[in-house]
Every structure is written in C-alpha cells, then in structure tokens.
Amino acid sequence: MVFDINKFTTKIICENEVSDAVVEIVSRENELDVFLCAKEDRPEFVELHWNTAEDGDVFVLGDAWERSYGDLEFRKISENDRFMPWYFIATDKRECFCFGVKTQANSYVCFRYDENGITALLDVRNGGNGVHLDGRKLCIATFVYSHYNNGNVYENLCDYCRKLCDNPILPKERVYGGNNWYYAYGDSSFEQIISDAKLQVELSCANENKPFEVVDDCWQIHSCAGPWLPNEKFGDMKKLADEIKKIGARPGIWVRLLRNKDASITDEMKVQKPGNEKYLDPTREDVQDFIKADLKRIKGWGYELIKHDFSTFDLFGSWGKDLTSGITDMGNWHFYDKTKTNAEITVDFYKLIKDTVGDMIIIGCNTVSHLSAGLVHLSRTGDDTSGKEWERTKKMGVNTLAFRLAQNEAFYMCDADCVGILDDYIPWEKNRQWLHLLSYSNTPLFISCTDKINDEIKDDIKEAYKTYNIKHTIKPIDIFETKTPSQWEIDGEKVLYEW
C-alpha cells in the first residue's frame, strides 16, 4: 500500500488548446506544491495521475465538498466509482495511507482511486469559465501523503487531518446551548427567544461556561434573505441580545449574506450566472462594503456568535450532494473579478467575514469544509438533522459525526447539528441516544426545544451538559459495516446505540 508521490503525469485543460499554461512542481518529503502559470491561456483544470498497484481488498473513504449528506462510507476499491473531495484514506485493515491537499487550497481538488490508479483533478475555474491568471504564478494546492504501518484507521486519519491544517481557530470554551430552528422552523419572536434563553440557563445548572441561545432564520424581514433588519416580531435586536446576556446566556444569530432583497442592491452587484435568481458577487468592492456593513451592524447589537449559511449554493448554484468532479457545472459565466479561481474567491469571502466580525465565534453552514478551516471556529459538517424525522437525524447526524470526527479540533470544531425536540414527533428513547453520543463527542452540542419539554427530558439534557463540558476519548468502531455506526468506544468502554 505504498506509492511514490513523485512519479506522476500532468495534464492542463484550458478553454482552448494549451499554448502558454505551465505547471511547476516543488517536491519535499511526502509533499508536493503545485504551481500554475498562464498569461493568455484560460486554465480550467489541472490533472495529476499516479499509477499504483491495486488490491481488491482495499477500502477507501473520502471527504465531502461542503456538508456531507448521509453518504459517507468506506467502499471497496472495486466499488468506488465516485470522486472524493479534498483527501482520502485507503486501508486493507493492516496498514493505511492518506492522500490529499492542505486546507485553504487555491483550487477545488478531488480524487479518483480505482483499478487505474490515483487521479487528482484540480478545478481552477472562475465561475464556469477558465481563470484569467494574466501571467500570475499561483500555488493551486499542496499535496500531503502519509503512510501508516498499522490498521488503526480512525487514529491514523486523526493524525493525518492535523497535518493538513496549519492554522485552525478554535473557541476558547466549548460551544453549546440552544438553537431555535428545529422546533420553530422560521416561526418565532422576541418573547419566545427570551423563554428559550431562560430554559438554556436552567439546563446548564450554573455552569461557568455559559450556554448560547442562537436565533436562527426567523428574525429578519424576509424569509431566508436580507436585508438584515428585524421583522415586527423581533423589533430591537440589540435589546434582545442585551436581555439574553442579562438572563445568563450568550446571544448568537444566523445570516445568509449573499441573498439580499435590499432595494439599493442592483443587478450589477450580483453574479450573472444561469438560473432564476441572482446572488451577490463577493468579488465586487461595493458588495464587500455592503456585507461588511451588515456584519458590523450585527456585531454592534452585541451578538457573540454568527452562523453564516448558504454561501456554497449562492456562489456556485448546487448543493454538495449534487456535485461530482467540480464545484459547479460547466457554463459560460464568471465572477466580476475574473483573475481569481473559485477557491480563491471562496477563501477571500470567508476572510472578509472573519476580519469584520473580530472576536465573534463563527459557525460556517453550507460552507466549503476544506477552505473554511482556519476561518471558522465551527463547521456544520453534515446536512440538517430534524425535530420531526428520526431517520433524517440518524442519516445526517450519525453519519457525519462518525466519518468526519477526525477533523474535530484539527480543522475546526465539527458541528454534527442539533438534537431537535418537537412535541412527540421523535420518540425520546431515540433522541436521547443522539444526545448522549453528542455529549461525549467533544463536538458542539446544540439543543432545539421550548420550555414545554417534560422533566425527564430536562434531566437528561442537564446530565448531557455536565458530561459535555468534560474532555472524553471517543471513536466509532463498526465503520466498515455501516453508514451509521452503532458501536463506539467512549472513554475506553464499548457503547452500543440502538439507532
């Protein structure tokens, strides 16, 4: 299971026949820097290929472009017919190797590993067109290879993820508390949030690490869109933040920065890509100023956490589950600034948010996982769980926690999403297990419920919050047999969940 990363072939794909585009490789021990330069050419992709000796008993696991959608799993190499974004691990259960690229790459990178060897496809487009580098020499990715002479798959992947991110930013304290989405689903008010905050303080049992109360999509004038001003059910958002703090909780808030119905926004400020709706173009200076003004206003209200959502879809027009070998479909469209790759544009957008909000805790949702590392404190690593459908929570929540847990504290804090408690939709004996697993996972723990929950549920949440604020050791066990592992090792003991 060893291959030489220095023995590969290279191919450049441009809008037209290649004339002046060149790739330069700088090799170090187990690492490759890939540089791309072009003056007249408009590069779209760079392809690297390694010939390897394959074994039918090798299993592979890749990552996801943004969130995962309950679809992560180990597959035999003979059955592995899909592209794997960012990195992968391969194992015959006796030894392993990991191969991928460092975080904050300047291209969107995915891998194919099959009987023909390993192929890496680096997407350097701008929108759906080739990028105008105009003579610029750009490091589009740094490849990292690690080989392990053991079959400790989870531990090896944890070690490897730490090698991929040089600059993770992590919150000073563990992040937990309430988020109102999975019981309210967009229908809430100032008074309801105050009630929710009081409940979170009660459940936290005077823990010195105060819980958050996150106001999700519901507070602004338009559903799931700006302008980022309060509707009549919320009124004064600064007053709401102040009241949450007085109660003893910490205020958080949700935004979707690239979808805005403000009357002052012109069509020129939007990306002119195919589709019925246009979204803000973050490569424009006037749009950047607009976004910074929104963020400064929200920070000025006193919110301590911001959850920014939908940006991958708004930038590129697709959900991660619908993507294969590139971040967006081919098509004749581009951003206002045509000189940067889609990856550079994505990273610049995340940097703008981070630089503007200062010391606020940042949750990225529908953000590109590998590009957001070092620019968000928490990343929603899976699609939405549910307050209504247990099968959705099982599929989305358990899957992403098991197969992306190795990224936790290596890239960011991995947010596998909420425990949604809404009336009697989901039997508590099911949700209790999800709560229990999250409380031991060392990842963020958010609860979505009202004060109408019964004493049994309250007691279970109080115990979970106590458990959560202590460091634990945890790993999934039956990762080769299922997409939703039920066997876990927690603090040295085997725990079985009846999903």
Biggest sheet: strand arrangement:
21-20-19-18-17-14-13-23-22
CATH homology-level superfamily of the largest domain: Aldolase class I
Got a strand count?
26
Nearest-integer average pLDDT: 96
CATH fold-level label of the largest domain: TIM Barrel
Walkthrough of the structure:
It is a single chain. The protein is of the alpha/beta class. The chain has two domains: 9-164, no CATH class; 176-496, Alpha-Beta Barrel (TIM Barrel). It contains eleven helices and 26 strands. Strands 21-20-19-18-17-14-13-23-22 form a nine-stranded parallel beta sheet. Strands 2-3-12-9-8-5-6 form a seven-stranded antiparallel beta sheet, with helices on one face. Helix 10 (428-440) runs parallel beside helix 11 (455-468).
Topology of this structure?
Blueprint lengths: L8 E6 L7 E7 L2 E7 L5 E8 L8 E4 L12 E2 L7 E2 L1 E5 L4 E6 L6 E7 L2 E7 L13 E12 L4 H12 L11 E4 L1 H4 L5 H15 L7 E4 L4 E3 L2 E6 L6 H11 L2 E6 L29 H17 L3 E4 L2 H6 L25 H16 L3 E4 L4 H4 L5 E3 L9 H15 L8 E3 L3 E2 L7 H13 L4 E4 L6 H14 L5 E3 L10 E4 L2 E4 L3
Parallel strand pairs: 13-14, 13-23, 14-17, 17-18, 18-19, 19-20, 20-21, 22-23
Antiparallel strand pairs: 1-4, 2-3, 3-12, 4-11, 5-6, 5-8, 7-10, 8-9, 9-12, 10-11, 15-16, 24-25, 25-26
Helix pairs in contact: 3-4, 5-7, 10-11
